[in-house]
Amino acid sequence: MLLTTPPILQFKSLSLASPFLHGATAPTPTSSTRQLFCRRRAAFLRRAPVIKAMRSLQGRVVCATNDKTVAVEVVRLAPHPKYKRRVRMKKKYQAHDPLNQFQVGDIVQLEKGRPISKTKTFWAVPVPGRAGAKAVEEAAPPQELGIPLESES
Question: Which intervals of the chain are annotated as region Disordered (predicted)?
């Protein structure tokens, strides 16, 4: 059987039911589709809560000898890998203290920031409720109960 037309021209006349057959690619999304996707994603991100895990920690100052740096020990409870009992896990962090205002034993909050040095990425911030509570307790005089003593009657 002799073919008078080249074989490629014979197949061009065939119409396929699906454009994806024989290696055809999917159509690219239009700009309106991309804009709709971006708007939906932006709306989702506005509603989603910001996760602040490991952004702020609370601990006790254990070393304040370095200039503008304090070592803070953070204690957390974690399950023991084998016995599953909750045990105290301690870790020391180096924190930036620009005014050298913290002494050993102070309770501070660590706020995460940009790296200041190789080991310092936290800023030491005084805990609002803790620092003032000690001063108020020490300054307040003991209150009388107002109960008459037996010796007075």
Answer: 134-153
- What is the pTM (predicted TM-score) of this model? 0.53
Q: How far is CA 102 from CA 28, 97, 133, 142, in A?
A: 60, 7, 16, 29
d(CA 69, CA 29): 54
Mean pLDDT check: name the lowest of 95-99, 129-133, 140-144. 129-133
94 contacts 119 by C-beta, under 8 angstroms: yes
Helices and strands counted in the chain (H then E): 3, 5
User: Do the Cβ atoms of 93 and 110 come closer than 8 Å?
Assistant: yes
Distance from the Cα of residue 143 to its chain's centroid: 45
Alpha-carbon distance of 88 to 60, in angstroms, equals: 14
